[in-house]
Write a structure and sequence with these properties.
Blueprint lengths: L1 E6 L6 H10 L4 E3 H8 L7 H7 L12 H8 L3 H28 L4 E5 L14 E6 L2 H9 L6 H9 L4 H7 L2 E4 L4 H15 L14
Parallel strand pairs: 1-3, 1-4, 2-3, 4-5
Helix pairs in contact: 1-9, 2-5
């Protein structure tokens, strides 16, 4: 099984990239979605996160992401602490996902990881696909989001590897600056190229 890591800075169109892979029949694990589940009521991250960051629970017993964001955004120490809690839990879910894909005899699987390079997760995949767009378009997309400010945007970018570097070291680059059809065709070509390749990273000790 060949494992692709899908990544891209905020506002670059990574969600569309993940959707393209799914449209092409490739199973995708969404790290952001996994974090949402982990911090929902009953999730494995609720207790450790609320212990370190008191006052972040919502009325249902899950973690209120807005409250949590107020405590950690712009605070590198707090963000490092939060990531130390979340990342091992996410990797555990990724391992389970890849195990299921292997049992289902999938030849190709995708891990959608926003901070793939930043967390060293590139060593856990066979190839990296970076989704990118012009900086002006990126900024326009992000600042349209509810609750987003220039300061928040800049703080997020400060934690992410520069897009130019990501494009230089990636195995494949997908531009989302054009039409959706163009990016879909690019990803279809990536699937065609990689689907027959033999993977080297997946095994019982993956991520350990």
């Amino acid at each position: 099984m060949f494992v692709i890591g899908l990544t891209g800075s905020i506002g670059m169109g990574k969600s569309w990239g993940a959707r393209c892979f799914r449209l092409l029949g490739v199973p995708v694990h969404d790290a952001d979605g996994c974090v949402h589940r982990l911090m929902s009521p009953g999730g494995a991250a609720v207790k450790p996160v609320s212990k370190i960051f008191p006052g972040v629970l919502d009325q249902r017993g899950g973690v209120d992401r807005l409250k949590l964001g107020e405590k950690v955004l712009g605070d590198d120490t707090a963000l490092d602490t939060l990531e130390a809690i979340l990342h091992p839990l996410v990797r555990r879910e990724q391992r389970r996902f890849l195990g299921r894909c292997r049992r289902w005899s999938e030849s190709l699987a995708v891990l959608d990881i926003p901070l793939l390079y930043e967390t060293g997760s590139d060593v856990r995949v066979d190839a990296v696909v970076v989704v990118s767009a012009p900086e002006r378009l990126q900024r326009h997309r992000v600042l349209r989001r509810t609750g987003m400010t220039t300061d928040k945007f800049d703080a997020i970018l400060a934690r992410q590897l520069d897009d130019r570097i990501k494009r230089q070291i990636a195995d494949f680059v997908v531009s989302t600056g054009g039409t959706r059809g163009q990016s879909l065709r690019r990803i279809a070509n990536i699937v065609k190229v990689t689907k027959g390749l033999e993977g080297r990273v997946w095994g019982p000790n993956w991520s350990r």
